[in-house]
Each structure stands twice: as structure tokens, then as C-alpha cells.
Design goal:
With about 220 residues, this protein is an alpha+beta fold. The strands form 2 sheets. Strands 2-3-5 form a 3-stranded antiparallel sheet. It has a two-stranded antiparallel ribbon with strand order 1-4. The C terminus is likely disordered. The structure holds iron/sulfur cluster (SF4) (2 copies). The site of one iron/sulfur cluster has 14 residues, from helix 2.
Length: about 220
């Protein structure tokens, strides 16, 4: 800034004010008008599914160990021949993220070995009580897309967990069960399976929507 005589310094300060008055305003009219966030914005998490509907989470707890805010709780359980939720030996039976603690750093996503956990662009997760800010597996699980079969069910015929991890499963087989059709209970709309960074996940959780709460 050029040298200004001391007695003119207050006027120089007002110069900034006057200069700003004639610039266009950049006020965002939120929430009436929502401006898209950056593609890699760290919003609400999502637990993804494979294309046949099985869950990607294997209950390994690596995300919970990586979290610097101790915001994640995972309880794994064994898949069985009669009740299989994921392709591997284990699945995440209980999964919670405490959004009172989460700082949106994304370390949990980096730690996840199966890309089960990603972050959506959804940022409207404020609430008026603490309980509803602890999101459960039900809140975080990706919605069923058309053609997926709701877990639990068998793996794709002839496939093993490696087949899934290599991304070779592109849909459900008839032997795996009745595929989901949009409009039936169980699906929630949204883009579902792969909420990679920059994608939008399910828009509203039915329980929270019924409560009139943001999801
Ligand atoms: S984004 Fe960061 S703070 Fe939030 S749950 Fe993941 S690791 Fe923890
Ligand atoms: S989300 Fe990923 S890291 Fe966390 S328990 Fe599931 S598979 Fe493991």
C-alpha cells in the first residue's frame, strides 16, 4: 500500500469501503437458493453396496481406528451360509458415526480397504438434539438401486470375495433373490451404490424425513 500522510489515513480506510460498495454483491441466499459445493466436498458419509446389493463393509473397524475424533463405532459379525450381508467372512452389523464429533477430515475414507465408506456432497446435517446426530447403519447405507437384491442373500453364483473386490460383479443373478424395483420399500432414491467423492448420496433418510429432520 502506498505511503499515506497520517492525517489522511482514516480517509484511506474509507476508500476501501467506498470501493467495495460499487462491486457486485456475492451474498448466497441460502437456504432458499443452494449453491453446489465443490465436487470433492466432504459431506455426509455413505456405506456403499456392490451392484448385486451386497454390502461393501466387512466390519474391519479400520475406519474407526483411523478417525482422529473417535467418531465412528463399528461392530462386525460373521456372515453365515443362511445370512450373508457382504462377500467376505464378516460384515458390519452395527455402524455409527457421531456427527457431533466428526470434523469431515476423510481419514476414515482413506483407511477403508473396500471403498465401502465414501463421503457424499450432502451437508445439511444440523439438528436440534444430540441423539439424531448419531447416524446409524440404517441412515448411512446406500439406497437400493433397480435390479439390486436386498441383503442378506448369497454371493453371485461362482463368485468369491475376490470377484467382488475386483469389480467384476455388475448386477444380481436371478438365483440371488427378488430384485428391487423403484417404489418398493427398501430403496430411498438417490444415486446409491458408489457415492465417490463428488457424488450425491441418498437425499433423505425415511426415518428422519418422517420426523421432519434433515438427514
Ligand atoms: S471424516 Fe474424519 S472425523 Fe469424520 S468420521 Fe471420518 S475420520 Fe472421523
Ligand atoms: S467402512 Fe470400511 S474400514 Fe470401516 S469397517 Fe467397513 S470395511 Fe472396514
Amino acid at each position: 500500500m502506498p505511503d499515506v500522510p497520517r492525517f489522511l489515513e482514516p480517509l484511506a480506510g474509507f476508500g476501501v469501503t467506498f470501493g467495495t460498495m460499487f462491486k457486485p454483491a456475492h451474498t448466497e441466499q441460502y437456504p432458499e437458493e443452494k449453491v453446489p459445493v465443490a465436487p470433492r466436498y466432504h459431506g455426509r458419509h455413505q456405506l456403499n453396496r456392490y451392484a448385486d446389493g451386497l454390502e461393501k463393509c466387512i466390519g474391519c473397524e479400520l475406519c474407526a481406528w483411523a478417525c482422529p475424533a473417535d467418531a465412528i463405532f463399528v461392530e462386525g459379525a460373521d456372515n453365515t451360509d443362511v445370512e450373508r450381508f457382504s462377500p467376505g467372512e464378516r460384515y458390519g452389523r452395527n455402524y455409527q458415526i457421531n456427527y457431533l464429533r466428526c470434523i469431515g477430515c476423510g481419514m476414515c475414507v482413506e483407511a477403508c480397504p473396500t471403498r465401502a465408506l465414501t463421503m457424499t456432497n450432502e451437508y445439511e446435517i444440523a439438528d436440534d438434539n444430540r441423539t439424531d446426530l448419531i447416524f446409524t447403519k440404517e441412515d448411512l447405507l446406500a439406497p437400493l438401486l433397480e435390479g439390486m437384491v436386498p441383503a442378506p442373500h448369497d454371493m453371485y453364483p461362482g463368485a468369491d470375495h475376490g470377484t467382488y473386490y475386483r469389480g467384476e460383479i455388475t448386477g444380481a443373478a436371478p438365483e440371488q433373490g427378488e430384485p428391487y424395483t423403484p417404489g418398493e420399500p427398501g430403496g430411498q432414491g438417490g444415486q446409491g451404490e458408489h457415492a465417490e467423492p463428488g457424488e450425491q448420496g441418498p437425499q433423505r433418510n425415511p426415518r428422519r424425513a418422517a420426523d421432519g429432520k434433515a438427514s
